[in-house]
Specification:
single chain, about 350 residues, mainly alpha, two-stranded antiparallel ribbon, 16 helices, about 65% helix, globular
């Protein structure tokens, strides 16, 4: 009997050892696969289950898409058919109100009144703000799909963009890949990135930018113009989408200056010139920043930033009051509150989320 028990223990030990070796060898591949599967399932679930227009300001984002792509007439018809005739406006702010199935059934086959042509597009520089969702939306119009199906296609493209950028982020991160994957899979992140909003572009690009700069810091001992060009492009996308997120680029300063190999011509090093003529560089940065503020002066984000700077004391006091009053609610919203529906997860989920984040760290 004792020999049998010893044999069983040995088999279990060998099996456990084999699993350890297997997971050790394939840890990265398993993490990549798990992220893709979970993000796809959850993203598509959110996109399908959340009723049209229930993600904050979703309807306004369709109007932005039309402005950015330079088309006309689609937003007004979408608002009239889905929001009003489809009864989705009755659900907003009312978690106890269910979608009117009869109203939705009456408009589910309604199509846009005119077909799409390439000549309809007059894109602006802000097209990046909703590029994935916009491509999906206009593809649906080009295929003459029902209006509701066009919105589903827009959400599908948002999900695919998030999954692709998220996977690239995890692969790019030189350390703490699990932390990046975990943060990308926060429910509120998934819900926002499965919606029609500029968050579906801002969030994955911000994660990717930070992971890429970490990669330059940890792995690349020679940062050249091609790497800087990648950073500049991602910062540009963030600037035309949500400017405050571009501040992530400041993490470039953690890279030692000796690692930069930015040559102008064959001999002149850009870092040496910047150190020598720092006052000129600082003046140019201030000038460019001023031009950027002037260009975006009419946007709500820029107006808010300017007001906060001009009244910095009031702004600081407002932050303190807001945190004291809604700090816990804000943290809860990040992990378990979705759209206008105010659908909350249990507090046990919040504790589980916090515990897992600490363990991964």
């Amino acid at each position: 009997m004792s020999m049998k028990i010893c044999g069983v223990k040995t088999s279990i030990s060998e099996f456990a050892s084999g699993l350890t070796v297997f997971f050790g060898r394939h840890r990265k591949s398993l993490l990549y696969g798990l992220f893709v599967i979970v993000s796809l399932i959850c993203g598509l679930t959110y996109a399908y289950l959340l009723p049209f227009g229930q993600v904050p300001d979703e309807l306004a984002h369709y109007e932005m898409i039309e402005e950015e792509f330079g088309t006309e007439g689609y937003y007004n018809q979408l608002q009239d058919v889905l929001w009003i005739q489809g009864g989705y406006e009755d659900v907003k702010w009312h978690p106890d109100v269910k979608v009117n199935a009869e109203a939705v059934a009456s408009i589910k086959n309604t199509r846009f009144s005119h077909r799409l042509a390439l000549s309809d597009f007059h894109p602006s520089i802000r097209i990046f703000r909703h590029l994935p969702a916009g491509i999906g939306f206009y593809l649906g119009i080009a295929l003459d799909l029902p209006i509701l199906s066009c919105t589903y296609l827009a959400e599908l493209f948002s999900v695919l963009f998030f999954v692709g950028m998220g996977l690239l982020t995890i692969k790019t991160a030189p350390v703490k890949k699990e932390i990046f994957a975990f943060c990308l899979l926060i429910p509120e992140t998934l819900q926002q990135c499965a919606s029609v909003s500029y968050d579906s572009v801002t969030i994955p690009i911000t994660f990717l930018l930070f992971a890429y700069i970490l990669h330059l810091y940890e792995r690349d001992k020679s940062v050249q113009w091609k790497q800087i060009s990648v950073v500049i492009f991602m910062v540009f996308v963030l600037l035309v989408t949500k400017p405050p997120y571009a501040l992530v680029m400041l993490t470039l300063f953690m890279i030692p200056s000796a690692h930069y190999d930015l040559r102008i011509g064959k001999k002149t090093e850009a870092v040496h010139l910047i150190k020598k003529y720092w006052y000129i560089v600082l003046t140019l940065i201030i000038l460019i920043g001023g031009l950027g503020v002037y260009h975006f002066r009419d946007t709500s984000i820029m107006k808010t930033i300017i007001a906060d700077i001009l009244s910095i004391g009031d702004f600081a006091r407002m932050l303190v009051r807001t945190f004291n009053k809604t700090g816990y609610e804000t943290f809860y919203m990040m992990v378990g509150e979705f759209g206008w529906l105010d659908s909350r997860g249990p507090e046990s989920f919040l504790l589980l989320f916090t515990g897992m984040l600490v363990c991964f760290w």
